[in-house]
What does this fold into?
Amino acid sequence: MFIILVYDINQKRVNKVLKKCRQYLHWVQNSVLEGEISDANIKKLKMELERIIKKDEDSVIIYSLRTTRYSSREILGLEKGGQDNII
It folds into this structure.
């Protein structure tokens, strides 16, 4: 499956969350990652993030797409995260 993960994390934990997410996904912009991931790995990532975040202060949103067949991405302005992340 293809996911887009966005987060709003307290500054104390933001680096830990980013580092963990980058083990599974591609960083595309501040607080945004995307990529193909297996069902097992998304479950593992969620469990690992739940150990890092504080649910009363932090927010992680995961958008799941079964396929990227009907999706597209258009970038206006500076592209962050590198060229290897294009859908």
In short: The two ends are 13 Å apart (CA to CA).
